[in-house]
Design a protein that fits this description.
559 residues, alpha/beta, 4-stranded parallel β-sheet, 23 helices
Length: 559
């Protein structure tokens, strides 16, 4: 249902009555909700008053988190049983497929998708209609494939996973319409094995489609025949790139290849193939049912429709959201997300995952669309948005993403294989307090070399977090290199724990918690009678933080 920060959630929908959302429920609360509210509500038409005990679990549906969203892709998620095909049908499921097969030609389907302005939601942002048009024009000798890319691998991203878990039939229906439009004979889902629930529900959905004659030969009494299979990915980030994904389905090592030829001409098993992202396909049935003009009414001139985001990090209301394209960063973070908690200051918003960049407070008015984000040094990506506050070190953030990229690089091309490793070495040196002034120039130059010369999209965007943090937070890099200080007190080798004498009570709790016995007594009297102020020996301290977390008087700080 989206609002992960308040889960587990129960939403009660009773016909003729206002929906009620219960937050942070446990077993006892769930039992009370059923016995005190749901069952009595079903037995009477009168309004049932919630007890004080139940009222404390109620979460207002008038929060900006709900009112500022526009649900298209996520419309059914949390409202229907994703494992029951009949519930999907009761909400209009497979009517779009019927419309396409019985009242439209493949060319008309392509034209409608093209007119809608739908662009690929996996990160590239290429026109879906144009991709379908290119695939449709390739002659079908014996086979043509439609592939759904469910290999979502960005840290902090779970959009595709949630769609597959919450509404698998919407993606299947979109795939079938795409297959009809381009003349595909088979469909493939490529989903990472780390998503077992999504895979299980996809399998059940495919089985239900076959049982109800929605897959196989002569679907809905037409000449259209189509079947779907699933392939599991082993968790390689590079397999989100379409040519690497295709190699993986074929049973080969998941590495990209130069393009052209593009998969639409020469893809899976050398046959024409069209690769679309999960969220992209989930939009298709809605467009066909409600029309291209309806879909294009959302968004901006160049970015139509809505976009699903996984809003995570230092934000009050983390969770899954869906907003019209053009919604600003400020609306997403401070209105829908409820802002940064604990009175902290917003520092950056990372969009686009490891391939994206950091936006700062001065970028809050930036509308979420493909062009605007790229102009600010970031990108849409698949839809991750990680909020960071004053306690985050941006050099450490760049190092984190570069560590991820180095682990995930397939190693096929030298700029990515070697370049990202050298970038990580420089960042590690800087974070360890051993940085040199020339490291900053070398880091900038090397990051550009990797960006300009790598083979695939992973390598070409690998150093975006480095370049964007260097541009937005030059003073943090300079503090690390010139002063050997981490302003956010995150980088351990440049951090020191210090006991404030005026606050120390001499309770000895910090000394008892210290695993290396680096805290000793001084001869200075503490606030408590008969007690003495403590001191931390920096040469022995391992910077575990147990002293600071255990101090009840706020007497230990980082400096």
């Amino acid at each position: 249902m989206g609002l992960c920060a308040q889960g587990p959630l129960i939403r009660v929908e009773i016909k003729g009555k206002k929906d009620i959302l219960f937050k942070r429920v446990d077993v006892e609360a769930t039992r009370s909700i059923m016995e005190e509210y749901v069952i009595p509500s079903l037995k009477t038409n009168n309004e049932i008053t919630l007890s004080d005990e139940l009222s404390k679990y109620v979460l207002s549906l008038d929060l900006p988190f709900f009112t500022k969203q526009e649900k298209v892709v996520l419309k059914n998620a949390g409202h229907i049983d994703p494992e029951d095909i009949h519930e999907y049908m009761a909400h209009g499921g497979y009517l779009a497929l019927e419309k396409a097969l019985k009242t439209m030609t493949p060319q008309e389907v392509v034209a409608e998708i093209k007119k809608s302005g739908l662009r690929g939601r996996g990160g590239g942002g290429f026109s879906t209609g144009m991709k379908w048009e290119l695939a449709a024009k390739v002659p079908t000798i014996d086979e043509k494939f439609i592939i759904c890319n469910g290999d979502e691998g960005d840290p902090g991203a779970y959009m595709d996973r949630s769609i597959l878990e919450g509404d698998p039939h919407a993606v299947i229906e979109g795939m079938m319409i795409a297959a009809y439009a381009i003349g595909a004979t088979s469909g493939w889902f490529y989903v990472r094995a780390e998503y077992p629930l999504a895979v299980e529900r996809l399998k059940k959905a495919i089985t239900a489609c076959k049982k109800n004659l929605l897959l196989g030969k002569n679907i809905m009494g037409t000449d259209f025949s189509f079947n779907i299979d699933i392939r599991l990915g082993a968790g390689a980030f590079v397999c989100g790139e379409e040519t690497a994904l295709i190699h993986s389905i074929e049973g080969a090592r998941g590495t990209p290849r130069p393009r052209p030829p593009y998969p639409t001409n020469k893809g899976l098993w050398e046959k024409p193939s069209c690769v679309n992202n999960v969220e992209t396909l989930a939009n298709v049935s809605k467009i066909l049912l409600k029309g291209a003009d309806w879909f294009a009414s959302f968004g901006t001139e160049t970015s139509k429709g809505t976009k699903v985001f996984a809003l995570t990090g230092q934000v009050e209301h983390s969770g899954l959201i869906e907003v019209p394209m053009g919604t600003t960063i400020n609306e997403i973070v401070n209105e829908i997300g409820g802002g940064v908690p604990a009175g902290k200051t917003l520092k950056a918003v990372q969009t686009g995952g490891p391939s994206g960049g950091c936006l700062t407070e001065k970028d809050l008015d930036t509308p979420i669309d493909y062009g605007s984000l790229i102009a600010r040094g970031s990108m849409m990506g698949s839809g991750g948005a990680i909020v960071m506050d004053e306690d985050n070190c941006m050099v450490d953030v760049a190092k984190f993403y570069m560590t991820f990229i180095c682990d995930e690089s397939c190693g096929k091309c030298s700029p990515c294989r070697i370049g990202t490793k050298r970038v990580l070495e420089i960042l590690t040196r800087i974070c360890d307090g051993k940085g040199k002034p020339e490291d900053l120039d070398e880091l900038q130059e090397l990051a550009q070399v990797v960006k300009n010369n790598s083979l695939c999209g992973l390598g070409q965007t690998a150093t975006n977090p480095v370049l964007s943090t260097m541009a937005a937070f030059p003073e943090e890099y300079q503090a690390h290199v010139y002063d050997h200080k981490c302003p956010a007190h995150v980088c351990k080798n440049m951090m020191e724990y210090f006991i404030v004498p005026e606050k120390c009570m001499g309770c000895t709790l910090c000394a008892r918690n210290c695993p290396v016995s680096c805290i000793t007594l001084t001869d200075q009297p503490a606030k408590l009678p008969g007690k003495f102020i403590h001191h931390i020996d920096a040469s022995k301290c391992v910077k575990c933080g147990s002293c600071m977390s255990g101090c009840r008087f706020g007497a230990i700080i980082k400096r």
